[in-house]
Amino acid sequence: MDNANQVTKFESIPNDEASLIESMESLLRKKMEKEYTEGNTKRDAHPKHLALLQAQFIIEPNLPDELKVGIFEKPNKYDAWIRISNANGKIQSDMKKDFRGFAVKLMGVKGKKYEKDENETQDFVLMSHPTMPLGTVKLFHDAVYYSLKWNPLVLLLKMTLSGRGDIIKELNNGKKNHSSPLDIRYWSTTPYMFGVNKVVKYSIIPTSTYKSTLPEPLTDRYLTDNIEKHLAKEEASFDFFIQFQKDPQLMPVEDAGVEWKEEDSPFIKVATIKIPSQIFRTKQRDELAEDFTFSPGHALVEHQPIGGINRARVEIYRNLSTYRHERDSREMVEPHH
Question: Model's pTM, two decimal places?
Fold first, then answer.
């Protein structure tokens, strides 16, 4: 693992983790090769983007000293890109219930980086559910293995027989027909360092005055349509929060399937996201959405991703993104404006 020398005191790595990550990456690469033609290779996860939006990420003024860490060290306003997506590994209609992804890329971020493939970015990768139900590398690997090598029914059976029917239930409960990706809350699901001695998770909560409604009937692109209608009328906004790990037993680092309860540790606002009115349904935006790479590893070392799921994502995202770009003769793009 490229970042093995950066393993923190909060982490414990199972002996079989590296081989499970390698196996997962190989399975996902084969899936991409099989499902997409050269020149049109989509991501292995969250392949359907709903919008790529320009935004601003505004650090709160007057934060207390203990929150002045990394990008939150001083009040600042960062230009950002936000990629909103459906989570399903296949490109499907918005009518199908699903999780949503909300990936934020700040630009012009100075400082020492965890991953070296981008020089001045800080990414926050969020999802429309408080947890990652498949919260360990082993569980995630099994899900990928059984659904790709066999089929999703075999996975369902295996989970049920091994007493993990709760995971299947949560995966089903988390999928929804949302009114709009701009109307809902998102969570990082996975933990990150906050300086040297503290660990946090992230969440964003919508604060827009405008709210979308579900169309009747639902359509294949209704989520993108609703984002477009919203941003044609007014800006969208979110509050950005951090949540400190207080108790390592109740709030584990190595299982992203366990929710860190707000009553145990409240969320603290540290920034605001503003998404101005804009026209985003263009060929250029669609191309950029494919060019960009979002990863938990695009972070200052003060915000290092930790825990098994993050370790797996950093490695798999990096290698599969390289594969996707090389297969399509597409340039890896780090945005600067």
Answer: 0.95
